[in-house]
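User: Sequence in, structure out. Go.
Assistant: Echoing your sequence, followed by the structure tokens.
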Amino acid sequence: MEKVVNIISLGCAKNLVDSEILLGGLHKSDLVVTDNPENADTIIINTCGFLDIAREESVDTILQAAELKKTGRPSELVVMGCLSERYPEELTSEVPEIDQIFGSNDHRQIISFLTGKDFSKDDPLFFRSLMTPNHYAYIKIAEGCDNGCSFCSIPIMRGLQKSRTIPAIMDEAIRLAENGTKELLVIAQDSTSYGWDLDQKVYLSDLLKNLNTVDGIEWIRVHYAHPAHLSQRIIDSIADSDKVCNYLDMPVQHASDIILKSMKRG
């Protein structure tokens, strides 16, 4: 009998992309996916551990699934994501109903756990199945963050910045466009520092110029910009593009130098 799996994705758009990659793997592995956790053999919860309210939502969702497991369906409870990266021992200790804990990027290991088979992480098996409406998609250009902001635990949970190469991002963008995506939402922990960590250093401006050439893509939006890293070259690349929207998802810095210093954002 085929195993039926339910994915619950919590938190930010970057988490959503991780869930979409896993969902693609589930579909390609001939596992049945259901939207109803009560019909699932396995519930996978992709958690968020960034803010107090997000942690509370993740814990509440895990506890609800644990209660459901006591009825006999589901028979397995899997937890992944930022909360499991930061508090693996605490979760397994406090919620014994959890069968397995995985990190945010352990897609191969999760599929192997569910199927008993071994898979290569680079296998096309892991191409995303979108959880957004088909006309738009998030495209994650980097993982982790090098900014040591005092209020943020992302570097602890996700590690330092690891940018994807432009060819890898372009391959994904082209495939998304071929599948009907019209709008790309560019995301990272700090999109404006994209490419600084690569052996052959590139910039967000270089990536935007390349994405502007993808046939079928009509709009590109840049999210998660850092005020200190918004360079003139990025502004110029947005101005010169006919697809990149004149819009930036970017927080306003605090007006107090004392607060900025305390935040390590100055």
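User: And one key feature?
Assistant: The mean pLDDT is 91.
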